[in-house]
Amino acid sequence: MNVCVLGAQWGDEGKGKIVDLLTPRFSIVARYQGGHNAGHTVYVRGRKFVLHLIPSGILHPGIICVIGNGVVVDPLALFAELDEIAGMGVDATGRLLVSDKAHVILPYHRELDVLAEARRGERKIGTTSRGIGPAYEDKIGRRGIRVGDLADASIDGPLASAVRENVAARNRLVGNVDMSADQVLADVRRVWPRLHPLVTDVSLYLHRAIAAGQRVMFEGAQGTLLDIDHGTYPFVTSSNATAGGAATGLGLGPRAIGTVIGVAKAYTTRVGEGPLPTEQTGEIGERLRETGQEYGASTGRPRRCGWYDAVAVRYAVRVNGLDALAITKLDVLDGLETLEVCTAYRCNGTILTEMPGDTAQLTGCEPVYETLPGWKTPTRGITEFEKLPAEAQAYVRRIEETSGIPAAIISTGSERDHTILRKEFEKFV
Ligand code: IMP
Question: Which among 237, 239, 276, 303 is the best mutation to test ligand 1's pocket, defined by most ligand atoms within 8 Å of the CB?
Fold first, then answer.
């Protein structure tokens, strides 16, 4: 059975570690949305790898990694990442495939991202400035350029005219020096020889691999609450980070997905703007940020930190059809006297147990907390559930009760083997 691993909160849940850990059970790891806005940090034998666009499975020799049509690809960012991992001894030759239908991020997208944020002023989203939103805008606006289009070297072909039109639109919007369409075109043509060998009909490739009995892991980026449809709109990213995105973003039917694992931190973080009901701006927030090293893997921005939000994760269970959770960073809570778990929101005197669809309403909500005892002995590196301190076991059980699904995996540290893989829930992974 194939497995989809995705974020059950606001991104940065530690998906990279979980994908890396499970990769040996699969033949293929496939990314289905987002771009190099993502930052998936993986520690292997003390070495830190930060992946943005390339699926985290690449760190395992022999695994095929796939970038689907739902992803937006900045070719230069992709090459930079390939060079970086090659420099660290990871050979991706022949193991990375890119969909011909994936849309391309070009220099004007990055500029338009920055411009749009400046225009939003107070209502800015806090994007990663990587050009993600404008690239998806062009895709939906049917003026985007796809990876397969880059093969067209003709001077007056569709690629040249699309680049000219898009650069002209950029020049009308960005008031400083004009960008040269010919220069963009020349740069775009330069990337093709290196990109070309990777370009594949990903839908067909996966379809055949699955038919031949190979297992595929679908790797989501960002998180459920950053999903363009189901997140805290407009403070979201521009793609479907939820499970449905795996089907549309790779060209597979929904039945190909198999089980869905939601990765959730044992507390909550968010980077960028938008509501975060359990945010702690004081001492606790600082403690979580420093202990959990909560700084953006892509942008280095400090993450906003707060208590575990069971309403948000329960919502993720619903919109993704989650089968099980992978709880990460439990060890970050080591030593805290007491822990708060948000089980409902109070909005204008009304108690809500389900995530409101209206972001303005969510902004006005206050969390309703339940207090649980903390634990004195460290959980770091523990590999068996029964060896966790009783209070930590109770904390995990409360997460399971409030979400309605089991915690199949519990991460107790950054290394691969700092993990509890619970035998009774093996069937989900
Ligand atoms: P964009 O994806 O760059 O357009 O940014 C939109 C929102 O998603 C901002 O709040 C970003 O901080 C957030 N975001 C994008 N990628 C990630 C990620 O990988 N982790 C966490 N937040 C992200």
Answer: 237
